[in-house]
Amino acid sequence: MALVSNTNVYQSALSNGASAREAASLAAGATLGMYTVDRLGIGEMFFEELAK
Questions:
Q1: Cα-flanking dihedrals φ and ψ of residue 33, to 5°?
Q2: I want to staple 18 with a disulfide (CB 3.0 to 4.6 A). Which of 22, 26, 27, 28 is the partner?
């Protein structure tokens, strides 16, 4: 899921004037962040329906 949504992050960064390197860095960081939130269960802290 993170990989699919971060394609949009990459494209959005490019369309807002970021270089390809900057956009790739941003997308990689966003992917890592989403993966970390998923693995640590942080989403369950904010959305009770995910804890079920």
A1: -60, -45
A2: 22
pTM of the model: 0.70
- Quick count: other Cβ atoms within 10 Å of Cβ 5? 12
User: 27 and 13 in contact (C-beta within 8 Å)?
Assistant: yes
**15-37 mean pLDDT:** 93
Contact 10, 26 (CB under 8 A): yes
Would you mind telling me the total number of residues written for the chain in this entry?
Answer: 52
43: amino acid identity, one letter: G
Pick from 10, 8, 7, 6: which is nearest to 34 by CA?
Answer: 6
The residue ranges of every structural domain in the chain are 2-51
- Report yes or no: 7 and 31 within 8 Å, Cβ to Cβ: no
